[in-house]
Amino acid sequence: MIRFILIISAFLYSLTAYNQIVDDFTDGDFTNNPSWNGDITHFEVNTTEQLHLKSTGTDTSCLSISSNYATNCEWKFWVKLSFQTSANNNARVYLCSDQDNLASSLNGYFVQVGESNDSIALYKQTGAIIEKLIAGTIAYTNNSVNTIRIKVVRKQNGDWQLFSDPTGGINFLLEGTASDLTYTTSSYFGIYCKYTSSNATKFYFDDFSIGEIIVDTIAPKINCIKVLSPTELSIIFSESIDKTAAETNSNYSISPIIGNPILSILDTLNTNMVKLKLPSELKDSNIYQLSINGMKDISGNMSTLLIDTFAYYIPKSFDIVINEIMADPSPTNGLPEYEYIELYNRSNFDISLENWVLTIGASNKTFTNLVIPSHKYLIVCSTTASPEFVGFGTVYDFSSFTITNAGQLIMLRDDSQRIISNVLFNESWYQSSEKAEGGWSLEQIDPFSPCLEEKNWNASNATIGGTPGAINSVNSSNADHVAPEILRASIDDYFSIFLFFNERIDSAKMKNANMYFVDNGIGKPTSVELISPDYKKVRLLFSTIIQNNIIYTLSVSDSIQDCSGNYISGVKSARFAIPQPVLPKDIVINEIMFNPKDESVDFVELYNNSNKVIDLAELDLCNLADDSLTSTKVSVSDGFLLFPNEFVVLSANSESIQMLYTTGLKQTFVEMTTLPTYNVDNGTVVLKNKTDETIDIVRYNESMHYPLLLSTKGVSLERINYNLSSSDSSNWHSASELVGYSTPGYKNSQYSEIKASTNGSIELYPELFSPDNDGINDVLMINYNFNSPDYNTTITIYDANGRLVRLLVKNQLSGIKGTYTWDGLDEFKQVPPQGIYIVLFESFNTKGETVKIKKTTVIALKK
C-alpha cells in the first residue's frame, strides 16, 4: 500500500463520501470486501499490499467489482507499470461498465494508461467501438517504470475532468476536460491488463476510491520550492492555481534582498506550478524566506499569507557519497538477496538528485525527481528488489541494476556532469577473503574521509550482512591527515606531459596553471586538463617544444591540496624526458621474488644500467616455461619513465610488499594487472621490447639461494653486480637477513662492485669476507684480466693446511676479463671454519701460455 499523506487523505475522504467504495488491500485479500471477480488466478496481493498481476505468456487479464457510481462522482486510483507502454502492453481502469467481463463488448468509460503517445486518456466504449474523450498531456508512460496516481471527476451535467500525478503522489494536475452524457448508469468498475509475456508480472494497482465528488473548500498551500538557477524558482502548490493570482508579481516577495520577482508564469501543463524570474542572483549556501499574498485555487479558495523558507546551495564534491555497496548478496546472511548501493547526504542541506547520473561500470542510470534530505540515506536497487528494501529506508529503483562482484567503477555525477562521488572498488577492499565470497556489503568507515579510497572501506560487521538505510556497522572516525605526493611525470607528446599524484587532488587547485613550472626554458603550462574520474592525474600543455636528450624538472606549488585539504609535502617535483629506445642490457633483471610469503606476491625488480631515459611502456615481462613464452605488458597508464641508475618493482599488489619489507619510494613500484606465473622451484624471467628483442633473461632455481637458509619462502634472489652475466648463477645470492630477506626498490643487500685488475693478474675483493648472509661482504669477488680471450680457467680453494675446500671452476673458457664469485661454502655446502684460505687461479691457452696465481683471503665469522 502507498501510505504517507494518503492515509490522512483517505480518512477525510471516508468522512465526506457516504457509501464510497475503497480498497487499499491492507487486508491482504482481493476476493472479499469488496469482492473482485474475473481472472482471479492471474492476480495476488503482494507483500507491499498492492494488487499485482502474476500471469504468464501473452494475454489479457481482467477483474471487476460491483459499482453503481456513474455521475456526480469521482474515481481515484494508483497504477505502476514497470515497462515502457505500447499498443500491446497497457492498462485500462474501467470507471463504468454494464458488463462484468471487461474484455467483452460493453458500454461504459475507461482510463487507458499507456496511450499511443505514451500518456493517459479517457475513453468512451460503445460495444466494441471506443472513442477518445480526453487526450492526456502530462503523465507520460514511456519510462521503464511508470508510477501514476489518477483522479477522474464527472459532474451531474456530464462534464468530465481527468487529473494525474505522474510521480504517484496526490498533487493532481489537470490532464484535460470533456463533456459526455451518453451513459449515466453503471453496474461494474474494474481493471483490464493487456501484455506480452515479458511484462506478465509488471502491473501493480492500489488505493482504489470511488464516491461522491468532494467539494474543494481548502485554500492552496506551498508544497515545495525548487531552485532552478540562481535567478529562477519554481513553486509547487498543493492544487491547481488561478492564472491571474499566479502571474501577479506583487503577490510574491523573497527576503533578504531579492524582493518581488520580475516575472511570474503559471506552467501550462502543470497548473500546480508557478515559475519566478528573480531580479538578482541568489547566493550560494544562503537561506531565504518566500512570502505569498493573495493566492487562490481554480475553485476560488483564497489563501492567507503563505510563508516558507528555501535554501540555495550548489552541491560540492562528496556532499553525496557512495556509502555502501552490496555487490554479491549470495549467500544471504539475512538481508534481501539483491544488490544495492547506499548513498548518504553528508551535507547540511537537502539536495535534489533530479537528472543526476549514477554510473555502474558502463551503465548510466538517471534519477528523476528525488531529494535526499540532509544527513539521510538512499538505497538504490533494482525494481524487483525495491519492495524488499522499503522496510530499511527510502528506496529508489531502476529496472536493471547489476554490480560486478569482483569490483568496478561506481560514479555519481550531478546534472552538470560534475563528479560528486566515485568508488573504484575490488575484492581486496573487504579485508576478508571469506566475506568477499558473498553475503556481505562493503561499508565506508568514515563518510567524511572519502578520499582515502581502500583505506576507508571494510566488509560489514552487521550480523545480517549490511546496513542499508542506516549508519554503517564499521562507522568510525578515520580522518585523512596524510599529505599528497607526486608519483611521477611522463611524456604525452612534444608539447605536453602527464603528472601523477598518489591520491585525489582538489580539482580547483589542480587546474590552476600557475601551480606548475618546468625548467630549461619551458616555463608554465598554457593549459591544464583534469583527468577524471579520480583526479589523480593532470595533463599539462606547453607552448615550447620538449627537446630530445634533455632531462627536465617539473616543480609544483606547495599550495596543491588533496581532496581532504592536506597540502602537498616532501618531494614537490618530478623529472621527465623524451624516452629512448631500449636495447639489450640497458635494463637488467635485478631481483626476483618467486616464492613469496602467503600474504604477499611475486615481484620482479628491474634496474636501468644505461645512461638512457627509458619508457616501461616499451617492455613486456615474460615467463618461459616448456619452451612457451607468456608475456604481460609492463606498460602503465600513459607511460612510466625509468631514469639511469633507478630501480622499478613490478608486481600485482605493491601494498602487500610494502607492508612486509623495507622498500624504496612508492614511486618505484608499478602495479600490474597480472604478473607472469613464476614457479617456486625453477623458472625463467624474460624481459622483451616491443620488437620482440630479448633485453634480459634470467634462469633461476631454488638451489641458487644460500644453502644454509632454513626456508627460502619470502626470500628474494638478488643480483650481485649489474655488469656480470644474468645467466651466471654465481652472480645471484639470497637477500640478507639484516634487510628482512628482500630489498624491493633500492640497492641490493648483496651488491658488490667489480674491482679492476691489472693485465695478467687476478684481484680478490674484499680481502676479508663473512659468508653469513648478513648482507655485509657475504661473497668473495675474483676479478681477472688476461691479454687474450682464449684461456681455460680452473679455480680451486684450499685451507691454510693445503686441504681442498672447494673446486669452484673447472676448465671454463674465460673472456679477456671478468669476475668469478665464491659464496664461502665448501663442497658440502657448509661454511668452513674462519681463517685464511688460498685461492689457486690456473689458466692456459692454445699457445701453451699458462697463468698460475695464488691469492689468500680470510673468512671471518661472527661469534
Write the layout of secondary structure elements.
Elements: H1 6-16, E1 21-23, E2 37-38, E3 43-45, E4 51-53, E5 59-66, E6 73-81, E7 90-97, E8 106-113, E9 120-127, E10 129-135, E11 146-154, E12 159-165, E13 173-179, E14 188-195, E15 203-212, E16 222-229, E17 232-237, H2 243-246, E18 252-255, E19 263-266, E20 273-277, E21 286-292, E22 306-312, E23 320-326, E24 340-345, E25 351-352, E26 357-360, E27 363-366, E28 371-372, E29 377-382, H3 386-389, E30 395-398, E31 409-413, E32 419-424, E33 442-444, E34 457-459, E35 486-493, E36 496-501, H4 507-510, E37 516-518, E38 527-531, E39 537-541, E40 552-556, E41 573-576, E42 587-593, E43 603-608, E44 614-615, E45 619-625, E46 628-633, E47 641-642, E48 647-651, H5 654-660, E49 669-671, E50 682-689, E51 694-701, E52 717-719, E53 732-734, E54 761-765, E55 768-769, E56 780-785, E57 791-799, E58 804-814, E59 817-822, E60 835-844, E61 850-859
Parallel strand pairs: 29-30, 48-49, 55-61
Antiparallel strand pairs: 1-15, 2-5, 3-4, 4-15, 5-14, 6-11, 6-15, 7-8, 7-14, 8-9, 9-10, 11-12, 12-13, 16-17, 17-20, 18-21, 19-20, 21-22, 23-24, 23-33, 24-29, 25-28, 26-27, 26-31, 31-32, 33-34, 35-36, 36-39, 37-40, 38-39, 40-41, 42-43, 42-52, 43-48, 44-47, 45-46, 45-50, 50-51, 52-53, 54-56, ...
